[in-house]
TrEMBL record:
PANTHER family: ELECTRON TRANSPORT OXIDOREDUCTASE, PEROXISOMAL ACYL-COENZYME A OXIDASE 1. Residues 283-444 form the Acyl-CoA oxidase C-alpha1 domain. Transmembrane segments: none annotated. SUPFAM superfamilies: Acyl-CoA dehydrogenase C-terminal domain-like, Acyl-CoA dehydrogenase NM domain-like. One of its GO terms (biological process) is fatty acid beta-oxidation using acyl-CoA oxidase. This is Acyl-coenzyme A oxidase.
Amino acid sequence: MSVVVPECCDDLKRERGRCLFNKEELTNILDGGPKLTEKRRRIEKMLINTPELFDDVSPDYLSHEDRYSNELRKATQLMTTLEKNGFTYNDAVTTGTGLWLLMDGNPLSLHISMFLDTIKGQSNPQQLQEWLPLAEKFKIIGTYAQTELGHGTFVRGLETTATYDSTTKEFVLHSPTITATKWWPGALGKTSNHAVVMAQLYLGGKCYGPHIFMVQLRDLETHRTLPGIVVGEIGPRLGMNSNDNGFLQFNHHRIPLTNMFMKHSQVTEDGKYVKPLHSKLSYGTMVQTRVGIVYHASRELSRALIIAIRYSAVRHQSEMVPGDPEPQILDYQTQQYKLLPHLASFFALRFSARALLEVFIGTSAGLGSGKMNMLPELHALSSGLKAVATNDAVKGTDICRLACGGHGYLSSSNLPRIYTAIAAGITYEGENTVLFLQVARYLIKSFRASSQGQTLPFSVSYLRVQPPSSHAPLMSDRGLVDALGAGVRWMVGEAERRLQQLVDSGHSPHAAWNACSVHLVQCADAHTRYYICEQFVDAVSKLGETVSSGVHEVLRQLCRLYILHRVIQTAGILLRCGAVDGKALTSIEEEECHLLATLRIQAVSIVDAIDIKDVFLKSTLGAWDGNVYQRIYEEAQKSPLNKSDVTQGYYQYLRPLMKANL
Ligand SMILES: CCCCCCCCCCCCCC(=O)SCCNC(=O)CCNC(=O)[C@H](O)C(C)(C)COP(=O)(O)OP(=O)(O)OC[C@H]1O[C@@H](n2cnc3c(N)ncnc32)[C@H](O)[C@@H]1OP(=O)(O)O
Ligand SMILES: Cc1cc2nc3c(=O)[nH]c(=O)nc-3n(C[C@H](O)[C@H](O)[C@H](O)COP(=O)(O)OP(=O)(O)OC[C@H]3O[C@@H](n4cnc5c(N)ncnc54)[C@H](O)[C@@H]3O)c2cc1C
C-alpha cells in the first residue's frame, strides 16, 4: 500500500499554531548558544547524508551476532564519517546526535569515553605521547575494565592483582579467584584489543590499593587473544544487546612497569611507591563519566518526552463531555500531570548539567596546579546529580511509555529501547544508592563542620546552623526554594541527631550509619534536588535579561512547575519542619493544576524546540508529522512473520495439535 505522508497532521498544525514564543531562541538556549545549534545541525546534516548509518532492518529481527556486527559496522562508519568531515567523536557525543544512531549498545562507546578519558586524565607525559595518538586514530581500541564478578561498587574490594617484579621491571596481572574475573565492561568481549584495568597494586608483598594499568588483550594483526588472557562476551542483557559487554581473566600475565598509569602515583624501577596528592585521584575517570551521564540522561528523557507529548496531541480517546468528539488525550489533566512535570525536569537537568560541567572544569583546572580542595564537592555534586538524573530519566521515560498506552509498548515507538538504555545508568558508573550514600557522608561532615563554626563550600552553605533569614516571600520561586532548603537542613540535622543518639547508646559509628541509611539517602536526594532547583531559578533569572519575553515566560512556567511539584513531593518534611503550612500547600496544589493547563497549550511547541529530528527519535509515535497510525501499520509489515501467510510453525506444531486425538 502506498502512503502519502502529509506535511503535518491537523492536530499538530493546530498545536503549533498556538505557539507564542520564538522556538529557535529556546533551541539555542538548550544547545548552549546559536553557534552550538548551528554546529549540531551541521553534524546532523552530514550524518543524515550517510545512508550507511541507518538500519535497513530493526535490530529486534537480527541474531545476537548479526546485531553486534551491524552496530559495529555503523559505529566504525560513524567514526570515519566524522573524521573525514573534520569533526571529532566528541562532537557527536556532546550533541547527542551520534549516540542516537547507535543507542543499541555502540561497541565503540567505551573507547571514545572512558578509555580515552583515562589516557588523558591518568597518563604521565610520556604515556600520553605514546598512547593518545594511537587511541585517537583507533590504532588501538580499548575499554574500561574495573568491575569484577564479585565486586562492582566496592572498588577497594577488587581482587585482580598487579604484583611488581623488580627483576624484570614488570607487573604480573592475575585473577586469583572466579570472583576476580572482570565482568561487564562494554566492548570487552570481542571489540577491544586493549583495556585500562583496575587492579590491586602489590609492591614487596604489601598492597597499595587499586591502581590503573594499560593492558593489551589481543594481537593487533590477528585480533587473537594474547597468552595469559581469557576474554569473552557475557551474554544477553535487559537492553543494549548490540554491545559486547565482556569478561576477562589474567593468568600471571606480564606487562611492563611503564604500563601503570603514572600521572598521580608512581612506582620506581626498584619498586618504591610514590603517593598521589589525593588518594582518590585514580577515580577521576568515573567522576568525569558521571558528569557526562547527567547530560546523557537529560537527552534520553527529552527524546521520550517528544514522543509522548506529540503522540498525546494526536491520540483521541474517550469522551470528556458526553456526546462531544473524542478529545486529544493531552487535554486530560491526568495526562498533563503525567508528562509536564517531567518536561520541567528535563529543563532542570539540562541547566544543572551545565552548572556541574562548570564545577568539573574549574576543579580540573585546580587539580592541574595541585589544588585538591574542590575535589570532595565535585565528588558529592557529580554523584548526587548522576543519581537524580538517571533515576528521573528512567522514571520519566517509563511514564512516557505508559502515557502512550498500548502503543508505547511497541518496539517501534522506540520507548522500550530508550528505557532499557537509560535504565542501565542507574547501575553503571556507581549504583545510585551507593552514590547517594557518598553524598550523605559529605552532608553530615559539612553539617558537623558548620556546627563548629567552619565555613562551608558553596553547594552546602545553606546547611549553616544559623541561616540568614530569607526575605523572599514564601510563595515566590526563591521563597519556595528557601523552604526546600530549610527542609533539607532539617532532614540532615535529624539524621545527625539520630546518628549521635545511636553512638551515644553504644552502637559503633558504622552500625549507626547503616541504621540511619534510609534517611541518609533521602537527605542526599533532597539536597541534590534543592541544588537543581537553585540552578534552575538562577539560570532562568539570568536569562531573563537576555531573552525575549515569550521564551522567558515559558522557562519561568517550567521552572515554577518544577518547584511546585518538588514542594508537593516533599510536603511531609516541609510540614514537619514548619517551612510551609497546610494552607500554603493547598494553594500550591491548586497553582500546579492551573499551570498544567497553561503549559499544555504550548507543550508541543516546547518539545519541538528541543529540536530532535525524526531520524534520531526513531519512533512511529513521535514523528514530526504525527502520522502515527500509518507508521505503526507499516512498521508491523516488516515483521519476518509476515513474509508468508502460513508459517513453518503451523505445519510443525499447530496442525499436529489440531489433528491429535486429545
Ligand atoms: C559525555 C557523554 C557521556 C555519555 C555517557 C554514556 C556512556 C557511558 C558508558 C558508561 C558505562 C559504564 C561504565 C562503568 O560502570 S565503569 C565502573 C564504574 N564503577 C563505579 O562507579 C564504582 C563505584 N564505587 C566507587 O566509586 C567507590 O568504591 C566509592 C566512591 C563508592 C567508595 O570508594 P572508597 O571505598 O575508596 O571510599 P570511601 O567510601 O571509604 O570514602 C573515602 C573518602 O574518599 C572520598 N571519595 C570517594 N570517591 C571519591 C572521588 N571519586 N573523588 C573524591 N573523593 C572521593 C569519600 O568522599 C571519602 O571522603 P571522606 O568522607 O573520608 O572525606
Ligand atoms: C550496562 C552496564 C554496563 C557496564 N559497563 C561497565 C564498564 O564498562 N566497565 C566496568 O568496569 N563496569 C561496568 N559495569 C558495571 C557497573 O559499574 C556495576 O554493575 C556497578 O558499579 C554496580 O556494582 P555491582 O554490580 O557490584 O552492584 P552491587 O554493589 O552488588 O549492588 C547490588 C545492591 O547492593 C547495594 N549496595 C552495594 N553496596 C552498598 C553499600 N555500601 N551500601 C548500601 N547498599 C549497597 C546496591 O545499592 C544494590 O542495591 C556496567 C554495568 C552495566 C549494567
